[in-house]
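Sync notes, pocket subgroup
Present: LS, DG
LS reminded everyone that the earlier model was apo-only. Rerun requested with uridine-5'-diphosphate-glucose included. Inputs:
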Amino acid sequence: MRMTVIGTGYLGAVHAACMADLGHDVLGVDVDEAKLAALAAGRTPFYEPGLPEILARTVASGNLRFSTSLEEAADFGEVHFLCVGTPQQPGSAAADMRPIDSVIEGLAPHLRDDCLVVGKSTVPVGTSDRLAARIAELAPVGARAEVAWNPEFLSESTAVEDTLRPDRIVVGVTSHRAEAVLGAVYSTMRESGTPYLVTDRTTAELVKVSANAFLATKVSFVNAMAEVCEATGGDVTTLAKAIGYDPRIGHRFLAAGVGFGGGCLPKDIRAFSARADELGFGDSLRFLRDVDEINMRARQRTVDRARTMLDGRFLGRRVAVLGAAFKSGSDDVRDSPALAVAASIQLQGAHVRVHDPEALDNARAAFPCLDYAREPEKACEGADLVLHLTDWAEYRDLNPAELAGVVDVPRLLDARNTLDLEHWRTHGWDVGALGRGNLAA
Ligand SMILES: NC(=O)c1ccc[n+]([C@@H]2O[C@H](COP(=O)([O-])OP(=O)(O)OC[C@H]3O[C@@H](n4cnc5c(N)ncnc54)[C@H](O)[C@@H]3O)[C@@H](O)[C@H]2O)c1
Ligand SMILES: O=c1ccn([C@@H]2O[C@H](COP(=O)(O)OP(=O)(O)O[C@H]3O[C@H](CO)[C@@H](O)[C@H](O)[C@H]3O)[C@@H](O)[C@H]2O)c(=O)[nH]1
């Protein structure tokens, strides 16, 4: 099937390459010419495990091509996936819909007969109806252009696997024709037994934002329990392990620490709340403000704990930060808790040097005020405190004995709760963590 993928960022580049790998004929479209040039040369503009191989394969086979032209896109395919960004609006909690609106303005006047515009971006409920109405105004007379919504659930770091073998596929449609077209797009997944839910567009939009709201709530729940453990002397890691054995709760998304960040969960819960206020059901989602507050408090608690470990003073101290990406397996630093903490500590007078295996360039562009090192050992040189803020596997393999010889004072705060602190302690380290009130000072 011939299709376009409009917006080739973290979501769109993966979707385009995976669709091409499934045998579809795909045109990726973006406004960012540098990004398109890299993709067309088979180079991934960001770090995503497994993507370079699929991209190289599909570009070489000719199944995947790129363009900046929406007119060319309209002419190219019968299905158009919208994958552009919906970031938080500056100065508001709501989603910025300008990228999507501008795509519709550019695409709709050129749409061919019988095409399907399929939203994958995460949007405020009601968007698909609004876009369908606008397309009806702009599309050539007689063009039967429809809108469907097909939310995306991939996570960065496992995006390729999540796209090729998703937990479920949800399509929101208003006709049998749209249902049949999307059924053909996803025939491989359907044949392999992936749960496939066909629904109305509104429900499809809501499935996406409610899934992210639930995930955010789960992380904030465990971070609230971390606060309780700190106040009472409990251990949140054991607590999470114990409650997670109940299959109704489950272990995933119960890792307490510095909280959630990234280009999705924080902005999506805010946009959901803002939309609820707009539509008059804000009270139903009031709890999401607590979820957001608990999450922001996790960053502040990390800063406070670091200050306490440094005897109440950041000024003139050297702090090594392990991790800049919002999570391991990604180079994405959008709303990264690690960088928020690092910058706050720097602003309070410490000299902060950050290491990350993949996200250094993005981190430097976002926070040029921080100092950076290409090796963890370099970041730790002369440090009064080492802060573990992104849970890269390689940090679990660090040698505490060797690192003790590099730092000024062997002091470690594990704000991800994934390091073996007893092991570090046996090598002379003074250790701290979040939510582990039972850790003897
Ligand atoms: N990143 C994820 O893991 C993920 C997963 C599921 C859903 N989503 C949703 O998908 C959407 C995209 O997210 P992302 O992380 O890929 O963002 P991103 O910023 O990485 O990518 C967005 C892309 O859209 C391009 N773009 C912006 N305006 C454009 C225009 N007018 N025409 C063509 N291209 C344009 C940008 O240049 C960029 O390459 C968001 O709504 C997000 O919430 C993201
Ligand atoms: O137990 C946990 C799990 C996650 N996190 C943090 O939560 C954030 C988000 O992690 P994750 O959800 O794995 O990453 P994303 O790539 O942002 O994916 C989320 O956002 C995407 C965009 O909407 C959705 O498609 C995915 O389903 C949803 O998981 C990161 O900062 C993680 O470090 C925790 O602090 N504790």
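DG: The mean pLDDT is 97.
LS: The first strand starts at residue 2 and ends at 6.
Action: DG to write up.
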